């Protein structure tokens, strides 16, 4: 199963992080509207990512819910009919919740840098260091930590869990 090392953090200065990411990126910026529908499953997470009416990804992944760099094992199946697949999964599992976001994607070496504007939550930065075959978690964690520093992201801004988890937490106030 493919794996990556992930970091998720609040983006307190979204534009400054975007500017730094643009300077580090190997490719032009890609802006991707995404709707992630999470389903009730007994272990791990299962989500259908709708990218367009005829383009979606069914993504199953497992990772620990803790701050800082963490390993995520995942599998992706692609679909040209996300609406029909959504209906089947709704009937089989029930919907846990929906996350809507605009993702700004940059590629820096083997790392996907995501700057996400998440509806109802705010702005975040996420790193996914895609591990190559034979590459260990420690090396991926070192890459993530270094890139986090280059982007100016503070350890105090690190988050655990998924956006879905944050949406489910009762708001303070």
List the defining traits of the structure above:
single chain, 173 residues, alpha+beta, Hypothetical Protein Pfu-838710-001, 4 helices, 25% helix
Could you walk me through the main structural features you see in this protein, from its secondary elements to its overall organization?
The chain has 173 residues and is α+β, with helices and mostly antiparallel strands. The chain has one domain (3-168): Beta Barrel (Hypothetical Protein Pfu-838710-001). Helices cover 25% and strands 43% of the residues. The chain contains four helices and eight strands, in the order E-H-E-E-E-E-H-E-E-E-H-H. It has helices at 14-24, 82-93, 137-151, 163-168; strands at residues 3-10, 30-39, 45-52, 55-62, 70-79, 95-108, 111-118, 122-130. An eight-stranded antiparallel beta barrel has the order 1-5-4-3-2-6-7-8. Strand 3 (45-52) and strand 4 (55-62) form a beta hairpin. The protein starts with a strand and ends in a 5-residue tail after the last helix. The mean pLDDT is 94.
Beta-strand fraction estimate: 35-45%
Please name the CATH architecture: Beta Barrel
- What structural class results from the helix and strand content? alpha+beta
- Identify the overall geometry: globular
Provide the CATH superfamily. Hypothetical Protein Pfu-838710-001
Low-confidence stretches: none
Instruction: Write down the Rg.
Output: 16 Å
End-to-end separation in angstroms reads 42 Å
Here the CATH topology equals Hypothetical Protein Pfu-838710-001
Mean pLDDT figure = 94
Biggest β-sheet: count, sense, barrel? 8 strands, antiparallel, barrel
How many domains, as an integer?
Answer: 1
Total DSSP E strands: 8
The top-level CATH class is Mainly Beta
Major beta sheet, strand line-up = 1-5-4-3-2-6-7-8
The helix content is 25-40%
H and E string: EHEEEEHEEEHH
How many helices? The count is 4
């Amino acid at each position: 199963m493919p794996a990556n090392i992930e970091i998720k953090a609040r983006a307190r200065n979204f534009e400054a992080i975007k500017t730094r990411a643009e300077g580090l990126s190997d490719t032009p910026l890609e802006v991707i509207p995404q709707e992630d529908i999470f389903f009730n499953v007994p272990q791990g997470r299962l989500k259908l990512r709708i990218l367009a009416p005829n383009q979606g990804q069914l993504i199953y992944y497992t990772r620990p819910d803790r701050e800082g760099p963490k390993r995520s094992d995942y599998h992706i199946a692609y679909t040209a009919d996300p609406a029909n697949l959504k209906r089947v999964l709704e009937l089989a599992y029930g919907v846990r919740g929906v996350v809507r976001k605009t993702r700004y994607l940059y590629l820096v070496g083997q790392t996907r840098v995501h700057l996400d504007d998440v509806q109802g939550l705010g702005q975040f930065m996420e790193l996914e260091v895609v591990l190559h075959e034979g590459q260990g978690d420690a090396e991926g964690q070192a890459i993530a930590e270094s890139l986090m520093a280059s982007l100016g992201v503070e350890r105090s801004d690190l988050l655990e869990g998924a956006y879905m988890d944050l949406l489910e937490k009762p708001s303070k106030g």
